[in-house]
Design goal:
The protein is of the alpha+beta class. 27% of the residues lie in helices and 8% in strands. The longest helix is centred in the N-terminal third of the chain and has 33 residues. It starts with a helix and ends in an 8-residue tail after the last strand.
Length: 266
């Protein structure tokens, strides 16, 4: 009875600690989601003045719900006209000339879907990544930020939830061969494409986060059973690891999944 009582007390203590950790995490998430962010000044349009998101809402349905989104929490620093540049005009520029022209695509207004520079004013890290050696062709104009992200959405991303990384359906719109179901799946796909790929740009081919075997060995632990020998999955991989990467040495060529081999081979 003493041992059972002690075990119950330890379990209760663990439960309290877990509850505290979860509560702290929830507070952190809430603060990150609700805290206003100060960014760079908005793009400017010669001769135009700010009219406010309410004016935009008369024609654009996106503006009617924009105040509930994350982008709407952005604060534009400055005073006077610049202080008025909140909401829609923080990204699209002052809209008076656009309104006077009766609207129209690209008329006296900035469209981040056509020109990513509007996004790069705040997302400087992504601007740097798309200029790396291997990158999604955003700078070339073949895709744009809005191809994957919905700037007017409640969670910014088109995919459900906050993280595009968790929803391969978004990547599957273009990369269908890699994301189609297979008889023998690569479990890493359950974690999302970004577990292996830097989606905006990388110094490694295929946008990989790492170019060598270390990428695979993060999940497939190497077990030294004897001096100089490395076993992975109860198979001696010592000589295999010297021939190249797991996916380029002729071993696991079907890294996204295979229909014929549980070892992920074509």
């Amino acid at each position: 009875m003493v041992e059972i009582s002690s075990l119950r007390r330890r379990r209760a203590a663990v439960a309290v600690v877990i509850a505290i950790i979860c509560a702290a995490g929830a507070v952190l998430l809430i603060s990150c989601a609700t805290e206003d962010v100060v960014i760079a000044p908005p793009p400017m349009i010669a001769g135009a003045k700010f009219v406010g998101s309410e004016t935009c809402a008369a024609c654009h349905k996106e503006a009617r719900t924009f105040k509930f989104t994350l982008h709407a929490r952005v604060q534009i620093p400055g005073e006077g006209e610049r202080a008025a540049a909140q909401g829609c005009e923080a990204c699209h520029g002052p809209g008076s000339k656009h309104v006077a022209a009766g609207g129209g695509r690209g008329k006296f207004i900035i469209n981040p879907g056509k020109d990513p520079e509007a996004c790069f004013q705040c997302h400087l890290d992504k601007q740097a990544e798309i200029h790396l050696q291997y990158h999604h062709p955003i700078a070339e104009g073949r895709v744009s930020c809005v191809s994957c992200h919905n700037p007017h959405g409640e969670n910014i991303h088109k995919a459900p939830g906050m993280f595009v990384a968790r929803d391969n359906d978004l990547c599957a719109q273009c990369h269908r061969e890699q994301t189609t179901p297979h008889v023998y799946e690569h479990e890493a796909l359950r974690e999302g494409c970004t577990i292996c790929h830097n989606v905006h740009g990388s110094i490694n081919p295929k946008l990989l986060t790492e170019r060598d075997n270390n990428l695979c060995l993060k999940c497939h632990a190497q077990v030294p059973t004897a001096p100089g020998l490395i076993f992975i999955g109860e198979v001696n991989h010592t000589s295999f690891l010297q021939q190249g990467t797991c996916f380029s040495a002729g071993c696991h060529t079907a890294v996204h999944g295979s229909n014929i081999s549980p070892q992920l081979r074509y």
